[in-house]
From TrEMBL, chain A:
Belongs to the ABC transporter superfamily. GO terms for molecular function: ATP binding; ATP hydrolysis activity. Transmembrane segments: none annotated. One of its GO terms (biological process) is transmembrane transport. InterPro entries: AAA+_ATPase, ABC_transp_ATP-bind, ABC_transporter-like_ATP-bd, ABC_transporter-like_CS, P-loop_NTPase. Keywords: ATP-binding, Nucleotide-binding, Transport. The lineage of its organism: Bacteria, Pseudomonadati, Pseudomonadota, Alphaproteobacteria, Rhodobacterales. It comes from the Bacteria. This is Peptide ABC transporter ATPase. Residues 9-255 form the ABC transporter domain. Pfam families: ABC_tran.
TrEMBL record, chain B:
InterPro entries: BP-dependent_transpt_permease, MetI-like, MetI-like_sf. Keywords: Cell membrane, Membrane, Peptide transport, Protein transport, Transmembrane, Transmembrane helix, Transport. Its main location: membrane. It is a multi-pass membrane protein. Residues 86-275 form the ABC transmembrane type-1 domain. This is ABC transporter permease. GO terms for biological process: peptide transport; protein transport; transmembrane transport. It is found in: Cell membrane. GO terms for cellular component: plasma membrane. The chain crosses the membrane at residues 20-41, 88-115, 135-159, 207-232, 252-274. Belongs to the binding-protein-dependent transport system permease family.
Automatic annotation (TrEMBL), chain C:
It comes from the Bacteria. The chain crosses the membrane at residues 6-28, 102-122, 146-165, 260-282, 302-328. It comes from Pseudooceanicola atlanticus. Belongs to the binding-protein-dependent transport system permease family. It is found in: Cell membrane. The keyword Transport applies. It is a multi-pass membrane protein. Keywords: Cell membrane, Membrane, Transmembrane, Transmembrane helix, Transport. This is ABC transporter permease. GO terms for molecular function: dipeptide transmembrane transporter activity. Residues 96-325 form the ABC transmembrane type-1 domain. One of its GO terms (cellular component) is plasma membrane.
Length: 270, 287, 335, 293
């Protein structure tokens, strides 16, 4: 680890208001989603964040790119605490903190053409944002240039996710959050998208936080892994270490539950 | 891929076109008639001739050539009054519906997007407004503001903004929860600009459909106000005042009611169908 | 949960009613024309005018007038009608039954008609029958109650005169009403001539009000039904050997009706709002007809009373819809 | 002679414009056997189960082929007989436990009513059977669960209830349509285990639709691999995973990442292979159109 880690999160707490149980007067009770997390993300590394539904993995991701405000704690990004910054102060930092979303159908504006979806953030960050630059980004993620004129619904799931990647890399960030980006895809396009992401991360020296529920994917793609369970980190370290010698029962149980694509008579008994 | 995206369009085409072109031709007819009323109308719409009162339309015995659709109780030509009535109907519908649309949509988008106090105040106002029976509200407003076209238009906008506000708020709320709003933030967009550049294009088809619907409604409201003698001066040829007159003389001259009723019927129907048709036509996703 | 909904709703109701009171009071007071002058014969003396102005409280400031009026309203005193010289509450209550009977009749027609068409459409989904029903209900929906009223007047009043086009009951019928609920009283006391006459006066205005709502229910309920019929629980019921009609009526209908109810509530208030012009059109002696007369005659206390009553009815309907929605949905009932 | 539970012969399923969703599919299932139907989205794997159960989407029609359920020709039956036969012989475990239970009805009647309908049992008998099965799928306090509404139960609990409801009428065949896709891995394992236990105990045959080669390896004895509605391979599961597989099947296995063996990098399905398969199918389609028009 270097002296200042790329991301350094300390004692992170986050809760949501439980509107369904709001009393007649007074504030709604809070549901704690993140219960005091400490973690570091190393520069240039791909860090997997894994857990079952309700573990808080997506919430943690959205705090890193500051789409959510934490209740308390520090989020140090390259030595600067971004946990308490307001939108105005965040905007210049956002170029550095990009995100690829789970559902490209929802995250790509259905009324905008592909080239515009890619070019608009570039324009906003003062990086030009011309048609040519958008095309360049498209080609870089392996899509034909003429796809720039299409609307998102005219693409397949894998192609849409590539557009999401193109939009993120086009502004030249140092960090990308990938939130369950292959969970809606078929196995064949899944492999394509993952290989593309890992290739680009290497080429551009990106730091990536890769959120997934699929441990197999994480083992292949990531350098480090953080295992979350009900808002608490139960395992954290380089993938080989966590997979070969898990520290918690939760991780052990998760690993034992993966159905590997091979015959194994003892699987059900494990 | 290409085949998959073009096939449904081709299949949709014919049905959509008919649904678009039929109402569009009626509206075009209205516009032409309204613009060229002075040259088209065979008679002065205000000219009374008691010798020619209650003439039946051309297909009945006792009709008079030149008075195709007959005359009313004061001997005024029904066709000419309808032609001039189209002028007023279109004027009211375009101006009133546009005003209502802008006013209501902006409030609805602000409430849906910003939430918080804006939402609470606007929703409370909508609640209060919706507690009024709209027709009574309109009658009351025109009574307060005095009769006349401006009052009618103002009354429509002051009452019907809630329709836009409600629907647009709900649609904006749906859109605000989509990931593309978050990705605009990631992409450096300011909060306000996200509303106009990202969300508005997605709410626009709904607004257009509502606008068309409102144009039909505005014509009806004007007719209702004329019907209770509160629109513009009773002599003026509006479809509503013709209907009021026709309702009174229904047992002697039913055609005075029939023809403006047909005009109203097709206008309202056309605007409503047109709204849905335009929504589909200009929605890249539905295409 | 239910209690919480109830209390929140009641609080909102009070705020809304107060808002309505402010708006209607402001509106009628800024109206041009001196209502007192209209009451008196031309050439009335200055003292007479001053006396009446003081009697109706028009000499005080607007804010004072508002709170005096509101104070009265809270105690059930809505003031005295200027033109009819009777207490507003009596006038309004005498007309209310007519409007309630009309609106209820329209609602029943709309629910039966709309529900049937929706189920038929869902049963025949994907066929020409569905397309036909869709087109019809789409067209019916876009024509408002006022036009339907005119169309009925023309068809059943003139071209094929089988129904009465004005009034509420044949004036030749001799019957000593104890209440103003003509239809209900006629039914209860077994006077079928009264029932018949009331119905023949009511059917056209009720249909005019019901048709747009019926079309809306038909479209919305069918859409919701189709949404439910592709859910896995409907598929499982089919695999279990239940017929499509059973699946629709027993499994899907309740689920589809729930979101429909919320909308029908709002639309029912629109329907009641529509009684104003439809009653006028058919010279039906209800509240709406009286309201328009009141506006034309500048009868301020009467206008205020009627508007407030309408608002109270609308808000009550919304409350009932909210509560029944909560009651019918186990998720909300227990949550 | 073994009685097959299900025999599908040359099944072709069409859209009205004669686009084929299933192309000449044949497969059979013996009692107590689990057959996986695997393929990517659009391969038609769910359609086979739907065709058997008679729940094809509107406008989708069986144009050719035979389906034999317990040696009875479904195609030769009247709609009502067919419906009753299917209800008696088979059951469905659906994908999404959230929508598979009617949210407005209590759990009890949702299991009990079909039992009474299918077997004509008394209310008490059907209820006893439902309680027995709920107990069998490890639901504690089955009485209380029967009196609950679906939203009061967790996703895993609901899926177990659906399994109990499927096995309750003692069907000969169960179609499991991606029953674990919506679940977390640990819950998925419990559910797979439960299906396997019950199926072995009762000798019920299972047609298991999935896109996950990992699940295929764990649950099935036979596997049918589909591509664009066409059977690519029909083989014992063991054989497929021992390496002697059709190139497309092998590509699917290689595209599935394995956490046990990170050295074996997972590779996308080769574009050339997909293009070749599509070309083959296009030629086949051309022939089909010429012959049938």
């Amino acid at each position: 680890m270097t002296a200042t880690p790329f991301f350094s999160v300390r004692n992170l707490h986050l809760s949501f208001a439980d509107r369904a149980h709001k009393p007649l007067f007074g504030p709604a009770p809070r549901i704690e989603v993140l219960k005091g997390l400490d973690l570091d993300i190393g520069e240039g590394r791909i860090t997997g964040i894994v857990g079952e539904s309700g573990s808080g993995k997506s919430t943690l991701g959205r705090v890193l790119v500051r789409l959510l405000d934490p209740d308390s704690g520090n989020v140090m990004f390259k030595g600067q605490d971004i946990a308490g910054l307001d939108e105005e102060a965040l905007r210049p930092l956002r170029r550095d903190l990009q995100m690829i979303f789970q559902d490209p159908m929802s995250s790509l504006n259905p009324r905008h053409k592909v080239w515009r979806i890619i070019a608009q953030p570039m324009k906003r960050y003062g990086l030009g944002g011309t048609r040519e630059q958008a095309t360049e980004a498209l080609v870089r993620v392996g899509l034909p240039a003429e796809f720039g004129d299409r609307f998102p619904h005219q693409l397949s799931g894998g192609q849409r996710q590539r557009v999401g990647i193109a939009r993120a890399i086009a502004v030249g960030p140092s960090f990308i959050l990938a939130d369950e980006i292959v969970s809606g895809l078929d196995v064949s396009s899944q492999a394509h998208v993952l290989m593309l992401l890992s290739k680009l991360a290497k080429e551009m020296g990106l730091t990536v936080a890769f959120i997934s529920h699929d441990l197999s994917v994480i083992r292949h793609l990531c350098d480090d892994v953080i295992v979350l369970d009900h808002g608490v980190i139960v395992d954290n370290g380089p993938v080989e270490q966590v997979f070969d010698d898990p520290q918690s029962d939760v991780t052990r149980k998760l690993l034992a539950a993966i159905p590997l694509p091979e015959m194994d008579d003892t699987w059900f008994e494990r | 891929m290409a085949e998959a995206s073009t096939a449904p369009r081709a299949r949709h085409g014919s049905g959509l076109n008919l649904r678009l072109w039929l109402p569009l031709s009626w509206v075009t007819l209205l516009v032409v008639v309204a613009v060229f009323a002075r040259w088209i109308a065979p008679h002065d719409p205000l000219a009374q001739d008691l010798l020619l009162e209650r003439l039946p339309p051309f297909f009945m015995s006792g009709s008079e050539p030149g008075y195709w659709l007959g005359t009313d109780s004061l001997g005024r030509d029904v066709l000419s009054r309808m032609i001039y009535g189209a002028q007023i109907a279109l004027f009211v519908s375009v101006i009133a519906a546009s005003a209502t649309c802008v006013f209501g949509s902006v409030l609805g988008m602000l409430a849906g997007y910003y939430g918080g106090w804006a939402e609470r105040i606007i929703s409370r106002l909508v609640d209060i407004w919706m507690a009024f029976p709209p027709v009574l509200f309109a009658v009351l407003l025109v009574a307060v503001m005095g009769t006349g076209l401006t009052s009618v238009i103002a009354a429509i906008a002051l009452i019907d903004w809630t329709r836009f506000a409600r629907v647009v708020r709900a649609e904006t709320l749906v859109q605000t929860r989509m990931d593309y709003v978050d990705s605009a933030r990631i992409g450096g967009a300011r909060r306000a600009s996200t509303l106009w550049t990202e969300i508005l294009p997605n709410v626009l088809p709904t607004i257009i459909a509502l606008l068309m619907l409102e144009m039909g409604i505005a014509i009806i409201v004007e007719a209702i106000l004329s019907f209770v003698n509160l629109s513009i001066s009773t002599d003026d040829p509006t479809w509503g005042s013709m209907i009021a007159e026709g309702r009174n003389a229904i047992h002697f001259a039913w055609w005075v009611l029939l023809f403006p009723l047909i005009a109203l019927f097709f206008s309202v129907l056309s605007f409503s169908v047109l709204g849905e048709g335009l929504r589909q036509r200009f929605d890249p996703v539905l295409q | 949960m239910l209690l919480k909904t109830l209390i929140t709703r009641l609080l909102t109701m009070i705020v809304t009613l107060f808002g309505v009171a402010v708006v209607v009071f402001t509106l009628v007071r800024v109206a041009p024309g001196n209502p007192i002058a209209m009451m008196l014969p031309p050439g009335a003396s200055e003292e007479d005018i001053a006396r009446l102005t003081a009697l109706y409280g028009f000499d005080k400031s607007l804010v004072q007038q508002f709170f005096i009026w509101l104070g009265g309203v809270v105690q059930g005193d809505f003031g005295t009608s200027i033109t009819l010289r009777q207490p507003v509450d009596q006038l309004v209550l005498s007309r209310l039954p007519a409007t309630l009977e009309l609106a209820a009749m329209a609602l029943v027609i709309a629910l039966l008609l709309g529900g049937t068409v929706a189920v038929l459409g869902a049963r025949n989904r994907g066929t020409g029958t569905e397309v036909g029903l869709d087109l019809t209900s789409g067209a019916v929906l876009s024509i408002p109650d006022f036009l339907w009223g005119l169309i009925f007047v023309l068809i059943f009043g003139v071209l094929w005169p089988v129904l009465a086009i004005s009034g509420r009951i044949d004036p030749r019928i001799e019957f000593d009403f104890a209440t103003n609920f003509y239809l209900i009283e006629g039914l209860l006391r077994g006077r079928f001539d009264v029932v018949g006459s009331t119905l023949s006066h009511m059917v056209m205005p009720a249909m005019s009000l019901a048709l747009p709502l019926a079309a809306m229910i038909a479209q919305l309920l069918k859409q919701n039904l189709k949404g439910e019929l592709v859910q896995d629980y409907a598929t499982i019921a089919r695999v279990r050997g239940f017929s499509e009609t059973t699946v629709i009526l027993r499994e899907a209908l309740r689920n589809a009706a729930l979101p429909t109810i919320a909308l029908v509530g709002v639309q029912f208030t629109f329907l009641i709002g529509g009684t104003v012009i439809v009653e006028r059109l058919f010279a039906y002696e209800g509240l709406g007809n009286m309201a328009i007369d009141a506006v034309i005659n500048r009868d301020l206390p009467l206008i205020q009373g009627i508007v407030l009553l309408f608002a109270a009815i609308f808000i009550m309907i919304n409350l009932i819809v909210d509560l029944s929605y909560t009651l019918l949905n186990p998720r909300l009932r227990h949550g | 002679m073994t009685r097959t539970v299900l025999d599908i012969m040359n099944l072709t399923v069409n859209l009205p414009n004669r686009t084929r969703i299933l192309r000449d599919v044949s497969l059979s299932l013996e009692p107590g056997e689990v057959r996986a139907l695997v393929g990517e989205s659009g391969a038609g794997k769910s359609m086979i189960g739907k065709a058997v159960l008679g729940i094809l989407p509107p406008k989708v029609r069986i144009s050719e082929g035979e389906i034999l359920l317990d040696n009875e020709h479904l195609g030769a039956m009247t709609p009502v007989t067919r419906r009753n036969t299917v209800a008696r012989m088979s059951a469905l475990i659906p994908q999404d436990p959230l929508t598979a239970l009617n949210p407005l009805r209590k759990i009890g009647p949702q299991i009990v009513d079909p039992l009474r309908r299918i077997h004509g049992w008394s209310a008490d008998k059907a209820r006893a059977r439902a309680l027995e099965l709920l107990d069998r799928v490890h639901i504690r306090a089955p009485e209380r669960v029967m009196a609950s509404y679906p939203h009061e139960l967790s996703g895993g609990m609901r899926q177990r209830i659906l399994i109990a409801a499927a096995f309750a009428p003692s069907p000969r065949l169960i179609v499991a349509d991606e029953p674990t896709t919506a679940l977390d891995v640990t819950v998925q394992k419990e559910i797979l285990k439960l299906i396997r236990e019950l199926q072995r105990e009762t000798g019920t045959a299972v047609l298991f639709v999935t896109h996950d080669m990992g699940v295929v390896a764990k649950i099935s004895q036979k596997v049918t691999v589909l591509f664009a509605g066409k059977v690519m391979e029909d083989a014992p599961t063991e054989q497929v995973f021992s390496g002697a597989a059709h190139p497309y099947t092998r590509a699917l296995i290689n595209a599935t990442p394995s956490s046990a063996d990170p050295s074996r990098s997972f590779t996308p399905v080769p574009a050339q292979l997909v293009a070749d398969l599509h070309r083959e199918i296009a030629q086949d389609d051309h022939l089909y159109m010429t012959v049938t028009s």
